[in-house]
Amino acid sequence: MLTRIDHIGIACHDLDATVEFYRSTYGFTDVHFEVNEEQGVREAMLKINDTGDGAASYLQLIEPIRDDSPVAKWLAKNGEGVHHIAFGTDGDVQDEADGIAGKGVRVLYEAPRRGSMGSRINFLHPKDCHGVLTELVQKKS
Amino acid sequence: MLTRIDHIGIACHDLDATVEFYRSTYGFTDVHFEVNEEQGVREAMLKINDTGDGAASYLQLIEPIRDDSPVAKWLAKNGEGVHHIAFGTDGDVQDEADGIAGKGVRVLYEAPRRGSMGSRINFLHPKDCHGVLTELVQKKS
């Protein structure tokens, strides 16, 4: 079951400047940085609020670290903005992805990959989701 | 202060079909419909989770009801997808907007307008927010 908005993924050209914008404009100061080599991005997770399922909702700011990363290509086409949305699961992310695949939605990875803060993730094809690249997130237990 | 992700606003061509996608694919069944004549949209609020500030996070699905509404123009240019993000305030929305305007971010309305479910809202210019059309929401008290 999907029990929360886990995060909103926002692509940007300059991670440090964008984090500073969110900090100085809105006061979001709970920030976690990491590099995801597999996805070709450097990212910051800004915690916005706790959620009723015992987890939290974040903004995920993502900056490409390679010109051939999917996010670099997306930025070249679209410019900065919302790249994807992510729902959190209360169980195994691949069980959730399999259930959704059974409803005719294409799942992007055959097996879960590593997401932010040790999570396990998969993605759903935006063309099957009314234009929204949608991520499923199982937080680190 | 901004205390939650209030909603993610998603523009769509067919509201009923898109609500049905979110219901049947993910099981989101807590849905509120309304028409906002001023904004020129019909919309559905799908509740996703409770938030730590005593409110909730939603998906807001929006379908234009007039060809000259801003969302109709946005859809014609971009196709279906994430249109804006919204943060919830813990106080008066215009006080929050004024504070943000003082940091050099353009606020779109001189005074708050009516948002979903009786809320008071304002918007921040996406060009001042790293490409993200950003809404501020004071929920109905």
UniProtKB/TrEMBL annotation, chains A, B:
Q: Which gene encodes it?
A: mce
Q: Which PANTHER family match?
A: METHYLMALONYL-COA EPIMERASE, METHYLMALONYL-COA EPIMERASE, MITOCHONDRIAL
**Annotated InterPro entries:** Glyas_Bleomycin-R_OHBP_Dase (IPR029068), MeMalonyl-CoA_epimerase (IPR017515), MMCE/EMCE_epimerase (IPR051785), VOC_core (IPR037523)
By its UniProt entry, which NCBIfam families does this protein fall under?
Answer: metmalonyl_epim (TIGR03081)
Q: Which Gene3D superfamilies match?
A: 2,3-Dihydroxybiphenyl 1,2-Dioxygenase, domain 1 (3.10.180.10)
Residue stretches making up the VOC domain: 4-139
**Protein name per its UniProtKB record:** Methylmalonyl-CoA epimerase
Q: Which Pfam families match?
A: Glyoxalase_4
**Keywords in UniProt for this one?**
Metal-binding
Q: What family does this chain come from, according to its entry?
A: Belongs to the methylmalonyl-CoA epimerase family.
- What species was this sequence derived from? Actinomadura keratinilytica
